[in-house]
């Protein structure tokens, strides 16, 4: 009892308050949904490479009006079927020579082309520059695919949202409609639509869009049914928010990852359908070119002039591969939990 | 089960009926008649030809005749080949298509399952990586590009197999490979994902803890359980092969219905287009129905009646 500890006030030293306020603070800034996805995507090297390749292709294709060396539709019969020739490079395949009847001939000399004439990827059977045609063809293929995907998105998302939100017999009916559409092979639907709309860029775009929205609609519907049971949606309803506003303010932002992922998978399939139809002969019609029509032209005499088919085939394949890898990467980035 | 089956068959018939109706009226919207060189024929002759095709009757009567005909296997007469019934055109050409489709399905699915499973077992090794690369290529490269590549390298340069035409087994090799590539890639990817999932589950741990050998665990527990969901992708794969067959049959000059379909589109042969559309839809619907039933039988966890998705 006797040993009373004396603690005078001056034995305490006040700490700087402002320093300790920080201990509760989170050092890293809050990441938004997109930033978070971007951070994960950046770690995926193959997806980033694929993205860069796609950006390059988009720039080349849509800048083709300025950068293409020749007019893609200018016919020049004198220089028909010339193989690729790169100035200053003497490697078989890019030096302007061609194997004819077992021996190599200089096709440029045979055609009477001057020393300054060179076509980077050769010319086709009408003497049109292949490089320019491939650039313009890529532009058409990409345009068709992107526009078709946008229309597909619009139909699919609104159909899915409406069906999932309404529920009941409306949902039931709308699902039967989707089931019926899905049990007809997509290509048959596309072909029928093209026959009615007459072949052309517009009809091919619409046909692809109208026949491929069902997957998107089903995904959106399933997710909407889950979301509409969430508290924040119920709260918004209780507060008297209109359905349209709830759809835009609450549902769409929460559906965005599904929408982005599905869109990235739809674009390559649209590119495939466009190329497919043009290849078969019911897609883009002459003089317009797409990767499919170029492939079709090239396939006709690939035995003797294989370069006319290689380059469109390579461009188409690279674009498809890049889109698929990028889409895979985006899926992992936006939705790390999905297993597939 | 019986109730479910009846319901499915009812929906199948309903869908089929809608498909027939829609294609019929779509075709009626299109211009074009079976007449060639219209100017040269007198109106009476034109009328006679149209009458022969039954095109002088009112549209609703034509529709009823058509629907009745379809259920008796009569699809009308081809515009392109005069006097040739469409049903004959199709039945004489369905053989090669079915043969190619079946071969492609087998060649795609079975190696796909094996490769996919191997990728999952050897996860994150070079085996897995090369499997992923191959499947990305298989999914990305369009079948017709692959077909032409095969024609050029294997057919023309190596001369291992005929480039085109239809004869014995050798003629089916290249088209089958071209058709099977994408189903193979799809199956491999799907199986890998499923297998990775299964290998991480508790019952696999238990099987290992019991002291089963590595391959015993994989064969008896992992592979069997990851195979069940693979059945669900058979339907989409069938669509894939049907789509592919149209262009593959063209490239390899195979007398199948895919080639006929493209030809009919290019020549506006409406009766044949309608018939092939119906045949394709029926094939797809039957495949979907069978896979659903098989799925219900092999996976007891699925309550088939309560299934909505």
TrEMBL record, chain A:
Classification via Pfam families: BPD_transp_1 (PF00528), OppC_N (PF12911)
InterPro entries found in the cross-reference section: BP-dependent_transpt_permease, MetI-like, MetI-like_sf, OppC_N
Regions that span the bilayer: 47-67, 140-165, 177-196, 202-220, 270-289, 309-327
Organism from which the protein derives: Secundilactobacillus hailunensis
Domain ABC transmembrane type-1: 138-327
Family: Belongs to the binding-protein-dependent transport system permease family. OppBC subfamily.
Membrane topology summary: Multi-pass membrane protein
Compartments (UniProt record): Cell membrane
SUPFAM superfamilies reported in the protein's UniProt record: MetI-like
Name by which UniProt lists this protein: ABC transporter permease
Broad class of the protein's primary localization: membrane
Coiled coil spans: none
Keyword check for Protein transport: yes
Keyword Protein transport listed: yes
Keywords of the record: Cell membrane, Membrane, Peptide transport, Protein transport, Transmembrane, Transmembrane helix, Transport
Automatic annotation (TrEMBL), chain B:
Membrane topology classification: Multi-pass membrane protein
Principal location class: membrane
Ranges annotated as spanning the membrane: 9-27, 98-121, 133-154, 166-185, 227-252, 272-298
Domain ABC transmembrane type-1, chain residue ranges per copy: 94-291
Record keywords, A-Z: Cell membrane, Membrane, Transmembrane, Transmembrane helix, Transport
Matches recorded under Gene3D superfamilies: MetI-like
Homology family: Belongs to the binding-protein-dependent transport system permease family.
Record's protein name: Oligopeptide ABC transporter permease
Gene encoding the protein: opp3b
């Amino acid at each position: 009892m006797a040993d009373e500890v004396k603690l005078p006030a001056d034995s305490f030293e006040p700490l700087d308050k402002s320093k300790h306020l920080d201990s509760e603070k989170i050092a890293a800034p809050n990441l938004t949904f997109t930033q978070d996805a971007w951070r994960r995507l950046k770690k995926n090297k193959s997806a980033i490479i694929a993205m860069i390749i796609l950006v390059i292709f988009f720039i080349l294709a849509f800048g083709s009006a300025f950068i293409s060396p020749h007019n893609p539709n200018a016919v020049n019969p004198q220089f028909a079927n010339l193989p690729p020739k790169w100035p200053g490079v003497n490697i078989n395949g890019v030096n302007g020579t061609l194997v004819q009847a077992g021996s190599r001939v200089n096709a440029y000399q045979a055609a009477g082309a001057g020393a300054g004439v060179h076509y980077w990827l050769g010319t086709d059977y009408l003497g049109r520059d292949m490089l320019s045609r491939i650039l313009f063809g890529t532009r058409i293929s990409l345009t068709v695919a992107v526009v078709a995907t946008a229309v597909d998105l619009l139909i699919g998302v609104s159909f899915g949202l409406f069906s999932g939100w309404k529920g009941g017999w409306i949902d039931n009916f709308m699902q039967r409609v989707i089931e019926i559409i899905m049990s007809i092979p997509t290509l048959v639907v596309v072909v029928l639509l093209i026959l009615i709309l007459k072949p052309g860029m517009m009809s091919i775009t619409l046909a692809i869009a109208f026949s491929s929205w069902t997957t998107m609609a089903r995904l959106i519907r399933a997710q909407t049914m889950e979301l509409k049971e969430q508290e924040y949606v119920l709260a918004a309803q209780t507060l008297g928010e209109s359905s349209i506003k709830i759809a835009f303010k609450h549902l769409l932002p929460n559906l965005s990852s599904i929408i982005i992922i599905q869109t990235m998978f739809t674009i390559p399939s649209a590119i495939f359908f466009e190329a497919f139809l043009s290849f078969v002969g019911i897609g883009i019609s002459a003089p317009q070119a797409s990767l499919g029509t170029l492939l079709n032209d090239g396939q006709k005499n690939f035995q003797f002039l294989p370069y006319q088919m290689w380059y469109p085939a390579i461009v188409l394949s690279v674009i498809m591969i890049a889109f698929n890898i990028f889409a895979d990467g985006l899926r992992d980035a936006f939705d790390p939990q999905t297993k597939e | 089960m019986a109730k479910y089956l009846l319901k499915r068959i009812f929906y199948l018939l309903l869908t089929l009926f809608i498909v027939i109706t829609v294609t019929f009226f779509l075709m009626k919207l299109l211009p074009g008649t079976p007449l060639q060189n219209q100017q040269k024929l007198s109106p009476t002759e034109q009328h006679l030809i149209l009458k022969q095709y039954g095109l002088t009757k009112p549209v609703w009567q034509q529709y009823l005749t058509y629907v009745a005909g379809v259920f008796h296997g009569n699809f009308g007469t081809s515009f392109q080949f005069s006097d040739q019934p469409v049903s004959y055109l199709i039945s004489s050409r369905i053989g090669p298509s079915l043969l190619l489709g079946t071969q492609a399905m087998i060649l795609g699915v079975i190696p796909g399952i094996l490769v996919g499973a191997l990728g999952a077992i050897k996860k994150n090794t070079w085996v897995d990586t090369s499997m992923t690369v191959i499947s990305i290529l298989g999914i990305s490269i369009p079948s017709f590009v692959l077909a032409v590549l095969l024609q050029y390298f294997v057919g023309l340069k190596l001369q291992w197999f005929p480039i085109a035409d239809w004869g014995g087994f050798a003629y089916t090799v290249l088209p089958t490979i071209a058709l099977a590539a994408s189903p193979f890639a799809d199956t491999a990817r799907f199986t890998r994902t499923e297998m990775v999932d299964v290998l991480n589950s508790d019952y696999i741990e238990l099987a290992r803890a019991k002291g089963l050998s590595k391959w015993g665990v994989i064969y008896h527990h992992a592979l069997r359980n990851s195979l069940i969901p693979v059945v669900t992708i058979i339907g989409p794969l069938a669509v894939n092969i049907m789509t592919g067959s149209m262009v593959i049959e063209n490239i390899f000059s195979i007398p199948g219905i895919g080639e006929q379909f493209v030809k009919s589109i290019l020549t506006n042969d409406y009766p044949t287009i309608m018939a092939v559309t119906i045949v394709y839809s029926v094939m797809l619907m039957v495949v979907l129905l069978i896979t659903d039933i098989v799925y219900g039988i092999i996976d007891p966890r699925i309550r088939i009646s309560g299934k909505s998705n």
